[in-house]
Design brief:
It contains five helices and no strands. With about 140 residues, the chain is an all-alpha fold.
Length: about 140
Amino acid sequence: MMGYITVRTTTVSEFVASMKKLHLPEQIIIPMSVIFRFFPTVVEEYNAIGDAMKMRGIRFGGGKASAMLEYRLVPVIMCSVKIGEELNAAALTRGLGGPVKRTNICEIGFHVQDVFFLLLCVVAFAIPIVTMITGR
């Protein structure tokens, strides 16, 4: 759930700036920024493939499970490979991994809703641990 909220509310620039602020190495920042955009893009492609199948009258059922797997899985795999290559090229084109330090105008920091959500997560993780320790 935290990953979903992060992907939906954070831009790639903000994500990269926060990773740099944490002083993470480029070997982690570049793949993470590619992954950050990869999954939402694959979901869009999956939905587009589903829409194309509906347009052509291809539906689930009818005893064609292997054909459905082929119609859905093969295009998703092909699109995933292409998307990964394009996102990697885009990250390198934008200067990730380059010798020059990138500049960013994103304001990175915790806000009130971030602190509230962090406390909510800490409480959600602490309650099972405390109940396990106390035996109640």
